[in-house]
Amino acid sequence: MWDFEWTMRVLNILLNIILNSILLKASCVGCRDLVTLYTVKDITAIEAVQRRYTKRLPGFGGLSYTERLKRLNLLSLELRRLHADLIYCYKIVFGLTNLSPGDFFEKAPLLSTRGHDYKLYKNRCYTTVRSTFFSERIVNTWNILPADVDFSSLVSFVRTVRLVDLSGCLRCFGSQLAV
After folding, report:
1. Of 65, 98, 159, 167, which one has the greatest count of Cβ atoms within 10 A?
2. Do residues 171 and 40 lie in contact, with contact meaning Cβ atoms separated by under 8 Å?
3. How far apart are alpha carbons 98 and 100 in whole angstroms?
4. In Å, how far from its chain's centre is CA 157?
């Protein structure tokens, strides 16, 4: 015989994981333009929400944050935000939004053969405020994408960019969470 209480507890855990994943993904993508998480302090504060939540799940309390994320098949919020920014950048560069690419980015002159053919020109920022704008903070990450990222369609771009190790682009946790 099966234990009804145990089954309900397991279903509750699975439902919480699914809802957590949906809500965190929605908040990460939806609030991307409203809040610029520039300082390590801000990023750590937001990441602490996911840390606390995953630690409270039964059986996950004694695991490290990295191990909890791997077992739950989640990415850190910082890495999710970086993926969302890259996807938004792709949409702007390839005209999949109502925004003009020229208002945000300038194509870099092709002086080298490394990486992909869609590199963007990096403007020099003299103030910290300007460097936190979307059009400035995403350029370095966009330009270091390897040549094997598929730019042929949005679906293929999303699929291949998720395979890229972006640990060098994370401000807070670096290589700990970029798996």
Report:
1. 65
2. yes
3. 7
4. 14
CA distance 56 to 62: 10
pTM of structure = 0.71
pLDDT for 34: 37
CA distance 6 to 55: 20
Q: What is the DSSP string of 66-120?
A: HHHHHHHT---HHHHHHHHHHHHHHHHHTT-SSS-HHHH--BPP----SS-S--B
The region of weakest confidence among 45-49, 108-112, 151-155 is 108-112
Residue 24's Cα: distance from chain center in Å? 11
CA distance 137 to 124: 11
* The one-letter amino acid at 36: T
Please report, rounded to a whole number, the percentage of residues in the chain having pLDDT higher than 70.
70
